[in-house]
Amino acid sequence: MQLPESQVAVLEAASADEATSVDALAEATDLPPETVTGAVFELEDEGLVAVDERVDETIALTDEGREYAAEALPEVRLYEAALEAGADTDPVQMGQVIGASGLEGPQVDIALSNYARKGYGTIDSGEITADSDADPDADAEANALATLKGTGETPRDAVDVDADTLEQLDRRGLVGISETTVREVTLTERAVTELMAGIETAETVGQVTPELLTSGEWEDVEFADYNVEADAEQFEGGNVHILRQTAERVKDVLVGMGFQEMEGPHVDADFWINDCLFMPQDHPARTHWDRFALEEPTHIDDLPEDLVDRVERAHKEGVGEDGEGYHSPWDEDFARALALRGHTTSLSTRYLSGEQIGEIEPPARFFSVEKVYRNDTLDPTHLLEFFQIEGWVMAEDLSVRDLMGTFEEFYAQFGIEDIQFKPHYNPYTEPSFELFGTHPTTGELVEIGNSGIFREEMLEPLGVECDVMAWGLALERLLMLMYGFEDIRDIHGTLCDLELLRNTEVTY
Ligand SMILES: N[C@@H](Cc1ccccc1)C(=O)O
Question: Bridge-partner residues for 474, per DSSP?
Answer without folding.
Answer: 388
